Amino acid sequence: MLKDAQKQIDDWAQGFKDPYWPPLAQLAALTEEVGEVARLVNHMYGPKQKKAEEAAQELGEEIVDVLFAAMCLANRHG
What we know:
Blueprint: H1 2-13, H2 23-45, H3 59-76
Helix pairs in contact: 1-3, 2-3
């Protein structure tokens, strides 16, 4: 299942001149996405309340972003 998802991402990425960002940029993107998941979980279960002006985000969508970033990094390295 994950290999299929990785292949779909790679097929899509190969349509660009530079299919994947450099490794450190990819790691930064992955870290940013994990931070967004942490922020949401903290809002949902921790003491930090969400500000009224903050847009609603879905935890599932943010987890998918983490998986996408991780698969891009994995694809770049075989």
